[in-house]
Design brief:
It is built from five helices and six strands; from the N terminus they run H-H-E-E-E-H-E-H-E-E-H. The longest helix is centred in the middle third of the chain and has 15 residues. The chain starts with 5 loop residues before the first helix and ends in a 5-residue tail after the last helix.
């Protein structure tokens, strides 16, 4: 993600979340030394993004979204796989995230990617909705991912 992507990212953010991040949040993620913000493009336009923070043995997915008209095409999966791969490169053993408990599509994707539920924060979002805490163990995961795609 670069500064010129922020307008498109903000549009996706606002259409995706009831309490969207502001411009300064994304600006901070672009500039922070342990943050890694990426966009996915489709036909030359920003289609989605992910913000990862990686420090020592833990990384955290801070924000991820795909443009509403481009959902269901595997972009979120690609963004998550890229973020997990980068987290592993940075030395992380675990990737953590939190997701609104009613976001069944996201929870299902995260579970298919190997994330497990590890906790719940009651009334975390706007004092109403719970947050499901999820983690993925990256240790030993790389070889499983490589070999699972090879024909036997």
């Amino acid at each position: 993600m670069i500064e010129s992507d922020i307008e498109a990212v903000l549009a996706i953010e606002q259409s995706s979340f009831p309490a969207p991040w502001k411009r300064d949040h994304f600006q901070h993620e672009i500039e922070a030394p342990h943050s890694f913000a990426f966009v996915s493009e489709c036909a030359g336009k920003v289609a989605g993004y992910v913000c990862l923070r990686s420090l020592f043995e833990e990384s955290q997915i801070l924000d991820i979204a795909v443009a509403p008209d481009l959902r269901g095409r595997g972009l979120a999966r690609q963004l998550m796989e890229h973020a997990c791969s980068l987290a592993r490169e940075k030395g992380a053993e675990v990737v953590a995230l939190e997701v609104r408990d009613g976001n069944h599509a996201a929870i299902s994707l995260y579970e298919r990617l190997g994330f497990v539920r590890v906790g719940l924060r009651s009334r975390y979002y706007e004092g109403r909705d719970d947050a499901v805490l999820m983690e993925k163990n990256l240790q030993g995961d790389y070889l499983d991912a490589v070999y699972s795609h090879d024909p036997v």
